[in-house]
Amino acid sequence: MTTAVDVTALRRRPGLRRLRVFGQGPLFTAAVLLLAALVAVALFAPLLAPYDPDALDLQATLAGSSTDHLLGADQSGRDVLSRLLYGARSGLLGPLVVVALSTLLGILVGVVAAWRGGRVDALLSRSMDLVFSFPGLLVAIMFVAVTGPGMTAPVIAMAVAYTPYVGRLVRSIAQQEKARPYIESYLVQGWSGWTICVRHLLPNIAPTVLAQSAINFGYALMDLAALSFLGFGVQPPTADWGAMINEGEGALLQGAMLPALAPSVCIMLAVVAFSIVGEGIADRVAKRDR
Amino acid sequence: MQQNLLEIDDLTVRLPEGRAARPILDGVSLSVAAGEMVGLVGESGSGKSVACRSVLGLLPERARTDGEVRVAGRDVLTLSRDGLKELRTRQVSMIFQDPRASVNPMRRVGDFLTEGMRAAGVPAAAATDRAEELLDAVGIRDPRGALRRHPHQFSGGMLQRVVIAAALASRPSLLVADEPTTALDVTTQAEVIAILTRLQAERGTGMLFVTHDLELASAICDRVYVMYAGRIVETQAATDLFDRPRHPYTAGLLACTPRVEPDAAPPRPIPGRPVSLAESPSGCAFAARCAHAQERCSVEKPVLRQYDGQGLAACLRADEGILL
């Protein structure tokens, strides 16, 4: 039995194909573009912002959207758009540090646990379970209670809290990778475990870890915004999305939506974009491994 | 007497499984002299892979062992981690069954070949030159181009050549090949075997060649050990083994091979199925499948004994010359 297949029909239209990054769909491309824009905004906020984010203009208090203030002004008459643009800085920097630290720590713990096995594995895995069972936000708040408000303590606490997400994943895929025959054949060539881990095992599991870290970035962004919203993180008057929502509460009661709504939308878009990118990478890795 | 390069002396290996220890090898002794090509033949499950992996200290972590595995006089089983590493980098190399699985698919062949040398302190340029030399020695055309390619761009046979080149990179005095041609197709097998035997002869490397193909082993090896259910049942010089097998199992293996001569007897399979050491009875493990078994065979355990000439066989009736 033969089936005739029109091969040309299987080819995707070139217009859509151009939108594909990493072999993923247009949604993935949109998410990547959004994140790129976000990074650009954070880097060039001073050039892009129409006003000083902290400049008070009491005459513009709770102004609606206009050509002067595209997204209106908050209770103190500060330009919401300018504050949003500057807010992208702490909005991205905090999660970046959290993700960088937790990824490094997670890889270290996960690889050591998988490679050494036995008691070392048991000890590290149980420690990760312990951290995992503690709500990250609670740990962060406890840290703040000790050190006082500010970003340093919450960022460190969140980094520790996010380590098990990476560590568990790394441990399980490193175990699979370690069971592959090529690892043994390299051992037999007398290579040290360190060389094999750093030069072969790590590069091979890196894409999967990258996917998890991208997803973690979104969650960390949300958690840190929540901390700022609660008043434990970035302190007023510094522009930060979480803190802006907090300050916008009052405006909300007086009928002005934008000061609280705009940063909420920003957080949502960023988190969704990071999730899409993370899952897109994970998808890609799964396809490659099949 | 000259010391042998490899000397496995009365090696017994058990794997703990639940409460009982499952035996894998029982009193295996074999030796490889410098420059000698020694075959180790057996069916799957006979323990030949475990035996050859013990040479590199690659036994499962919880395995319990008795006996000694000496490489150049040092017992591998008691070596420290650094000692093992030293052994693996300088003295013994191993070639695995499936070349596709034993190379990291993500890295270039050049990395695979040079990294080990780089780690041993060879400068980058010298390592690359040596890698090219090695690839040339295993018959890969355009070695310089090959270094830049990835494993998937090679055929199985070509990749096995690369693996052989890597195994030779450290100038080992002993090469352990665990069914190096089983995963390859027949025409490629012959080429790879030819390369292995040529390099082994040129470099005077001792080699332990593990295979399930008795004919292949007796064609290329100096001496052959035959394993059954975790024990060595016979050993002879390859030519003698082929002409005058002493153990019914060896004879049975030879009789299973189809012959091309017009008046040859049709192949006769050995009845029954291979047993592992764990399930073998108290007497001769082969008794249940043996056409010549007597009552005493299932009670008395035969030991390896010398019969006229050089070989050893573990059969109660070996001296009767009853074979075939």
UniProtKB/TrEMBL annotation, chain A:
Family: Belongs to the binding-protein-dependent transport system permease family.
Membrane-topology annotation of the record: Multi-pass membrane protein
Annotated localization: Cell membrane
Pfam families: BPD_transp_1 (PF00528), OppC_N (PF12911)
GO cellular component: plasma membrane
Lineage: Bacteria, Bacillati, Actinomycetota, Actinomycetes, Kitasatosporales
PROSITE patterns associated with the record: ABC_TM1
Main location as per UniProt: membrane
Domain ABC transmembrane type-1 positions: 88-278
Entry-linked InterPro entries: BP-dependent_transpt_permease, MetI-like, MetI-like_sf, OppC_N
Membrane-spanning residues: 21-49, 92-115, 127-146, 152-170, 217-236, 256-282
Protein name: ABC transporter permease
Alphabetical keyword list: Cell membrane, Membrane, Transmembrane, Transmembrane helix, Transport
GO biological process, one term: transmembrane transport
